[in-house]
């Protein structure tokens, strides 16, 4: 575990100790540097936010479609036993967002 950034008093309450431990884990996650994919995803998010709702949904759908097609190509080269096809992407027609 990394050195504590903030001094933590001795706590007698078990709940307080659990909260502090969870906060320490959260700080470790937040302080972890982004990897290449996360940086790229954040740059895509910045671009998507500039679009209106319709174009944003269209761009998101096309990005998902490209990822899906690449996944299928990779799976086609994989023996059938190991294939676990992802579900197709669906767009909710009520709000043009990805259906969950």
Summarize the structure in words:
This protein is mainly alpha-helical. It has two domains: 12-50, no CATH class; 52-98, no CATH class. It has three helices and two strands. Strands 1-2 form a two-stranded antiparallel sheet. A hairpin with a 4-residue loop joins strand 1 (91-92) and strand 2. It starts with 13 loop residues before the first helix and ends with a strand. 0% of the residues are buried.
Quick summary of this structure?
With 100 residues, the protein is mainly alpha-helical.
Properties at a glance:
2 domains; two-stranded antiparallel ribbon; 100 residues
**What does the largest sheet look like?**
2 strands, antiparallel
| Oligomeric assembly | single chain
Percent helix range: 55-70%
- Structural shape: elongated
Structurally, the number of domains stands at 2
Mean pLDDT: 78
Q: What is the helix/strand order?
A: HHHEE
Identify the strand order in the major beta sheet: 1-2
Low-confidence region ranges: none
How big is the Rg?
A: 21 Å
Which structural class is indicated by helix and strand composition? mainly alpha
- Strand portion: under 5%
Number of strands: 2
Number of helices: 3
| End-to-end separation | 36 Å
């Amino acid at each position: 575990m990394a050195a504590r950034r903030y001094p933590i008093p001795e706590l007698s309450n078990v709940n307080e100790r659990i909260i502090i431990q969870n906060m320490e884990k959260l700080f470790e996650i937040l302080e972890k540097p982004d990897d290449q994919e996360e940086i790229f995803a954040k740059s895509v998010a910045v671009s998507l936010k500039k679009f209106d709702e319709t174009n944003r949904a269209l761009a998101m759908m096309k990005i998902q479609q490209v990822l899906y097609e690449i996944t299928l190509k990779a799976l086609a080269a994989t023996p059938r036993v190991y294939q676990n096809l992802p579900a197709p992407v669906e767009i909710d027609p009520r709000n043009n967002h990805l259906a969950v």
